[in-house]
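Note to self: keep these together.
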Amino acid sequence: MQLRYSFRLYPDIGQRIALSRAFGCAREDARRTNKPFPTAGELSTRLITQAKRTAERYWLGEVSAVVLQQSLRDAETAYRNFFASLKGTRKGPRTGPPRSKSRKDARQSIRFTANARWTITDSGRLNLPKIGAVKITWSRTLPTTPTSVTVIKDAAGRYFASFVIDTDPAADATRMPGTDRIIGVDLGLTHFAVLSDGTKIDSPRFLRRAEKKLKKAQQELSRKQKGSRNRAKARLKVARVHAKVADARREFHHQLSTKLISENQGIAVKDLSVAGLARTKLAKSVHDAGWSSFISMLEYKAERYGRTLVKIGRFEPTSQTCSTCGVKDGPKPLNVREWTCTACGTVHDRDINAAINVKTAAGLAASACGAPVRPGAIPARREEAGSHGFSI
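Structure:
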């Protein structure tokens, strides 16, 4: 499995200019109408080698050629996925045509592979070709030699170095203690998660807590003249508030998912329709909870550490079924937090009962024997809590 280890970068003024130049060179518009899309090799010859020799594109030689070649490979992959989606040979929802990058995009990035000859200096700096040795804050050591590094500039103006490493399955297996515990998890808004053993985990509601500060920052932004430097500064203030919220939410998800994975061999969750719920009046609270991100973390950590994760269907009536006798008692409005089963008379806490039913529906009692769940190919993800390597 591949994981990403991200660390905060602190480039100086000259290095920021060089990175900005590299970000700009990595942006390109390669779409062709009614013509077969050229390969990355053909694009490399046409858009890099030949273009560098012209007076209009001489500045392409000021950045590493690897950055330009990776951009072309990404464009080739994006178009192949798009055409495969049109033909129906690609699984998943239909994808739209690739969009050209813009300097106004919130996120800018460039990728250096191993052949780019980037190094980590003896003093702990990240030495990038044609950019220099950039100061980096190491929150921990890298377990293995990275296969690539991506330099990212986010909407808040922060720089990060994201290293891709290949994990060792044997070493990962020894990191988690053995256990035969099984748990069902019911995700919600009143509580972020309720476990089948009765544990309730409060929802931090990071966005709700930051609304006052965010409102003030957005008001200041709306008063600034468009195109002015003061507006650019105000935009950064808004972006930093959002970044702080996203960082805190990600840290909470990492800590909770790692705790559940380390303490349980089998975990059952419900496959929620987040996109559908995000179109209701609960949209802001649903986005604030970040259920999809949390479940994704559970998936790749279960894969990595040999745990079993089972997702049950979203239409399973976990809140309507009595976990004691199994009788379906019918739908109930959200304001009903406790109810009494009409068949056996058991008084249920709505969320705990749902978590027990999630566990039962997953069938983990019979199958959680240490066999790891095997989802599809998992892209490189951030690792456990603290992996982003920057302060909030």
